[in-house]
Specification:
Layout: H1 7-20, E1 31-35, H2 41-60, H3 63-66, H4 72-76, E2 82-92, E3 95-104, H5 106-115, E4 127-136, E5 139-142, H6 149-161, E6 165-167, H7 173-178, H8 181-185, H9 190-196, E7 203-213, E8 216-225, E9 228-237, H10 239-258, E10 271-279, H11 284-296, E11 300-309, E12 312-320, H12 322-333, E13 336-338, E14 346-351
Parallel strand pairs: 4-6, 4-7, 10-14
Antiparallel strand pairs: 1-3, 2-3, 4-5, 7-8, 8-9, 10-12, 11-12, 13-14
Helix pairs in contact: 1-11, 6-10
Length: 353
């Protein structure tokens, strides 16, 4: 017989989950920005449309979907979705450039996308723990937040512009005792995974940046999501271009796995309740892993733990698209696998190891 979790035990469990999970990275998905070259009303309207397209790419996660033909009319009336706007100036290779920054109405945008059958990839995306090694004049070193704020700021800005949540290691005494620059340069190893565990163990990226002199940069990237790796290289005139390319590739790889599938003409409604039982949970880290996964699912509107057992947990989920949509997302995640039993009223899954 299932036993409802006692309130005091629930509080202890939730505190354990929060303690075990890495700090959340706040992503402002419903804002966009673009260069503004013309201060006239027409020039501002064009820049707002460009910022709207920039925002759509972040919200949807998949660039091709954000550029779908059926959204052209929505882009043309981007000002109807606008909440506020402002300006900022950036220095790009010694040239000052003015950009418009626009905030859009999240509910109206989400409803509009749902009406076109394009689901929002909601907050709760994988946070990617990112280790960065800089090779300059043949000397390698790990980038540290307390010393390399400018370089890390460029990487963080490019990631946020694409809706990618990066977590940079503290590089404190504990991190430096576990790894050095050569360890990270060699790629993803058991030692690197162990060191990453203190920040989260779902997604991991290694960046090897080489400064070739002047403003010439090259980079080699390795992205690992649940032990599945993707690698790529890129060289460019400017670190910002290298960072933008990396953010694009990383988000597209993550979206291919975690972003909800497109819907055939469905709106954002159709919500229903689904009970999900997760088995083979063997400790606090496993609970944290499930706790991070469920809000990530694009079909999941709400997730509430109802029952906790020694090696299992039961969640009440509010989902869009019913159990079928949730099953498809869980299948593509690779983190949970179907378990024996269950039925129409309860889905049963187990953690994959």
């Amino acid at each position: 017989m299932k036993k409802a979790i006692h309130p005091s035990l629930l509080a202890t469990l939730l505190l354990a989950l929060l303690w075990a999970a890495p700090p959340l990275v706040a992503l402002d998905l419903y804002s966009g920005e673009a260069p503004i070259l013309d201060e006239s009303e027409g020039g501002k309207a064009n820049a707002i449309q460009a910022a709207f397209r920039d925002m759509l790419v972040k919200v949807v996660g998949v660039r091709d979907r954000a550029n779908a033909p059926q959204l052209a009319a929505e882009v043309a009336r981007a000002q109807d979705y606008m909440v506020s706007y402002g300006f900022r100036e950036i220095d790009s290779q010694g040239i000052r450039a003015r950009r418009i920054v626009v905030s859009f109405d999240r509910e109206r945008v989400a409803s509009m996308l749902g009406g076109h059958g394009i689901p929002v990839w909601r907050v709760g995306r994988p946070e990617v723990v990112t280790w960065v090694v800089l090779d300059e004049d043949g000397q390698r070193r790990l980038l540290r937040p307390d010393q390399d704020g400018r370089l890390l700021g460029v990487l963080r800005e490019a990631a946020e512009a694409r809706g990618l949540a990066l977590v940079f290691p503290l590089m404190d005494l504990e991190d430096r005792a576990r790894l050095d620059a050569d360890d990270v340069w060699r790629g993803i190893s058991p030692a690197l995974r162990t060191a990453t565990g203190r920040y989260g163990d779902d997604s991991l990226m290694v960046a090897r940046l080489t400064h070739a002199g002047g403003d010439i940069w090259s980079a080699s990237w390795t992205l690992s999501v649940d032990a599945v790796q993707e690698q790529w290289r890129h060289s460019a005139d400017g670190l910002r271009e290298v960072a933008r390319d990396a953010a694009d590739r990383a988000v597209e790889a993550l979206a291919a796995r975690f972003a909800p599938p497109a819907m055939a003409g469905a709106d954002d409604g159709g919500r229903s309740e689904v009970t999900l039982r997760v088995e083979e949970i063997r400790g606090r880290r496993d609970f944290a892993r499930v706790n991070r996964l469920l809000p990530r699912m694009g079909s999941v509107v709400e997730a509430v733990i109802q029952v906790a057992e020694p090696e299992a947990a039961v969640f009440r989920l509010v989902v869009r698209g019913g159990a079928a949509a949730l099953r498809e997302e869980l299948r593509r995640s690779g983190i949970l696998q179907p378990a024996a039993g269950g039925g129409a009223d309860e889905l049963r899954y187990r953690l994959s190891y």
